[in-house]
């Protein structure tokens, strides 16, 4: 594709490097930015730079945060006895949007996937164990995708914590097999949280 401007081409190349953005979409976005007032484009670029420079991960749950402790971990209104284990911070967003869960989270940063070379040591599992050793929880909820990798990760963690004095539950199977948590509709996800079952019961059903 020929561009009338090297600067347009450079902008398209940068935008097209983002996941899910093709070159036609990148060109449309670049031209949209070109038509905006300079002040709005400056605000846009500054927002991206501030995000990159100042966003961090919560030292407790590994959720994305602007401070050492994320908004969930630092909120006194949250139920400190519940911890919901998710694979990705996008799952936290999905669950929060259901308005059905008021406990805490632990973001693993992925799932155990031997095919992709991802093992337990590559995830935030040891920090989860440290939380269970040093903090008091009544229940841990597995909210991982119902996929082979999600099931493997659930079972690995379950074996490590099954002797703890803590209720271990998992989402009810209202979520379709193989479906990612972040793409599940809010009503289904909310019901799956509310109707969660003991993890051992889910093992018996397989």
How would you describe this structure to a colleague?
- The chain has 206 residues and is of the alpha/beta class.
- The protein has eight helices and seven strands, in the order H-H-H-E-E-E-H-E-H-E-H-E-H-E-H.
- It folds into two domains: 49 residues, RecR Domain 1 (Helicase, Ruva Protein, domain 3, Orthogonal Bundle); 138 residues, 3-Layer(aba) Sandwich (Dna Topoisomerase Vi A Subunit, Chain: A, domain 2).
- It has a five-stranded mixed sheet with strand order 4-3-5-6-7. A two-stranded antiparallel sheet has the order 1-2.
- The longest helix is centred in the first third of the chain and has 17 residues.
- The model has no long low-confidence stretch (mean pLDDT 89).
Query: Which percent band covers the strand fraction?
Result: 5-15%
Q: Might you state the CATH topology name of the largest domain? A: Dna Topoisomerase Vi A Subunit, Chain: A, domain 2
Q: Would you identify the CATH architecture of the largest domain?
A: 3-Layer(aba) Sandwich
State Rg. Answer: 21 Å
Q: Helix fraction? A: 40-55%
Helix-strand category: alpha/beta
How many helices? The count is: 8
How far from one another are the termini? Answer: 53 Å
Low-confidence stretches: none
Count of domains: 2
What general outline do the C-alpha atoms trace? elongated
Reported for the largest beta sheet, the result is: 5 strands, mixed
Order of helices and strands: HHHEEEHEHEHEHEH
**Quaternary structure state of the chains depicted:** single chain
Instruction: Give the number of DSSP strands.
Output: 7
- Average pLDDT, rounded to a whole number, is 89
Q: Strand order within the widest sheet?
A: 4-3-5-6-7
